[in-house]
Here is the input.
Amino acid sequence: MASQGPDDGGLFADINVTPLVDITLVLLIIFMVAAPMIMSTPSIKVQLPKAATGDEAQKTTLALTLQRDPSLGYRLFLNGAPTTESAVRAALPALLGKDPELQAIIAADRGIAYGDVMHIVDLVKALGVHKFALDTEPSP
Here is the structure.
């Protein structure tokens, strides 16, 4: 009387799914716990730009340009008009009074020394302008 059942030493062709489900659930729990921690502390903090609507006033922009001059090293322009550093120091408080979110765009010739550009950046920051950009041209 031999019994003919699944335990008679034949091949077992079914896959045991229980360990696969256990591992999947553990990984799901790990990702659910880790995702909020990763998203709450980004490695690079940026202030995203806000969309401007037609009803809001345009932001005031301050354009400072450094042009190479062989005799002086560079010439400084404020919104397209020739100026000096002392004139910039005098004009900026009035502009900041009108718009505390004043933005400065600093453009310089390719041959201007890095130290001169950083001097103008430092001047702008010291006068209270915290939003500024360095103007560039796109590469061909």
In short: The radius of gyration is 32 Å.
